[in-house]
Structures are given as structure tokens and as C-alpha cells.
UniProtKB/TrEMBL annotation:
This is DNA-7-methylguanine glycosylase. Signal peptide: none annotated. InterPro entries: ARM-type_fold, DNA_alkylation. Gene3D superfamilies: ARM repeat domains (1.25.40.290), Hypothetical protein (EF3068) (1.20.1660.10). It comes from the Bacteria.
């Protein structure tokens, strides 16, 4: 039995329809769930991973994609956990095509936010010369989740954030009426305010952002 088959067997054993219903409701019924809570799912994933470590390490991109295209959300979550684990400083230049495919497949905030912060963010840390090209393509896309990713990828950058790029992206999307874009603008500004509150406050005062973005951006600034 290979990793994907074994993981499916182990997750199915713990499936609970009673637990799945509120999970599906929370996600606006965009996805089906097996009904396995995060801690239990991660335990199953870890134990199965250890059993098949050699296979997984050699084929983690293909395995993650197999999981990401399954029906239930727990498989998508396992795929993302796998990629966060295996991609660390282990990207190749062409991975951006795969990352874009992941962001635009089975898209919702819970998957996109992790992919943007840890996977896209990690890729652009390893290949910083690709940043402006990738951000421009994602930011200009008609796909809202790619737009959101172009805003959020620097969440893991802390004091190394390119604030000029961040401001440019916030301004570019500042008139958007999309909730997930307004929220992302506020979130990424609030995150950076931990390192440069005064410049975030100054930018917000001058940028004419949407009220939701302003509230989120200034939430932690006294």
C-alpha cells in the first residue's frame, strides 16, 4: 500500500459525519469533509508519513497534487501540510507553475492563506529575483485568490518586508469591493505594523483605503 492509499485508509477509519456537518457549514459548504479535527488529522498524517517517508520525499509534488484533487477537505489540508514540510529551501524555479495551480484549485481562504504565506512566500525568498515578475502576474490576474496571494506572501517576511512593494499592491487593489481583498490589505498592513507602526499609520492616513482595510490595518496600533 502506497502513501496515498494508506493515508486514505487511515483517515477514512476516523471519519465522522456528525463532526463533518458543522465543518462543512463553517466553510460555506464549498467542500465535503470527512469530519476529522485538525489535531487528529495531523497525527494520522505524521504517522503515515513516517511509514512512507522515502516514497514521499522522492515524489512529494505528485503526491501532494493527488491529495489536493481529492474530494474531501482533509486531503487538501494534508497536501498543504506535506508541502510546507518538504518545500523548505527545496524549490526549483519551475515550481511557481505548480504553486499557481495549487492556489487556483479548490480555492478558499483556509488553503490560499497558507499557500500564500508559506509556499509562495518561501519560493520568493529562495528566488528573490522572481518576486516582481510573479507578483505582477498574480496581481494582474482575474483570479481573486492570486490577487490575495500577491498581497499576503510577505506575511512571513517580518522586518525584511519590502514595504514599497506592499504599499504598491495595497494601492493597486484599494478600490476592490471584494471582502477577501479588503481583508488581506488590512491584515498584511497590521502584520507589518509590528515592525514599523508609524509608517503603516502614515500610509493608511494617505491611501484612501476601504473602511474594512483601515480597521484591520490599525487594529494593533494605539
Amino acid at each position: 500500500m502506497n502513501f496515498v492509499q494508506d493515508l486514505k485508509h487511515n483517515l477514512t477509519q476516523k471519519a465522522c459525519r456528525e463532526t463533518a456537518i458543522p465543518m462543512e457549514n463553517y466553510m460555506k459548504n464549498n467542500f465535503n469533509f470527512l469530519g476529522i479535527k485538525t489535531e487528529a488529522r495531523r497525527t494520522i498524517f505524521k504517522e503515515t508519513y513516517e511509514k512512507h517517508k522515502q516514497e514521499v520525499k522522492a515524489n512529494f509534488r505528485d503526491i501532494a497534487w493527488q491529495l489536493f484533487t481529492k474530494n474531501e477537505r482533509e486531503y487538501h489540508q494534508c497536501a498543504i501540510d506535506l508541502l510546507v514540510k518538504e518545500f523548505k529551501k527545496n524549490y526549483v524555479l519551475d515550481d511557481i507553475t505548480f504553486i499557481e495551480k495549487l492556489i487556483t484549485t479548490n480555492s478558499w481562504w483556509d488553503s490560499v492563506d497558507v499557500l500564500a504565506k508559506y509556499i509562495l512566500g518561501g519560493y520568493l525568498k529562495q528566488f528573490p529575483n522572481e518576486t516582481y515578475k510573479v507578483v505582477e502576474r498574480f496581481s494582474n490576474s482575474e483570479n481573486m485568490w492570486l490577487n490575495r496571494s500577491a498581497l499576503l506572501f510577505q506575511l512571513s517576511y517580518k522586518e525584511k518586508t519590502d514595504f514599497e512593494l506592499l504599499k504598491s499592491e495595497c494601492l493597486k487593489h484599494s478600490k476592490s469591493n471584494e471582502f477577501f481583498i479588503q481583508k488581506a490589505i488590512g491584515w498584511v498592513l497590521r502584520d507589518y505594523s509590528r515592525f514599523d507602526a508609524e509608517n503603516v499609520k502614515k500610509f493608511v492616513a494617505e491611501a484612501n483605503l476601504k473602511p474594512l482595510s483601515i480597521r484591520e490595518a490599525l487594529r494593533n496600533i494605539k
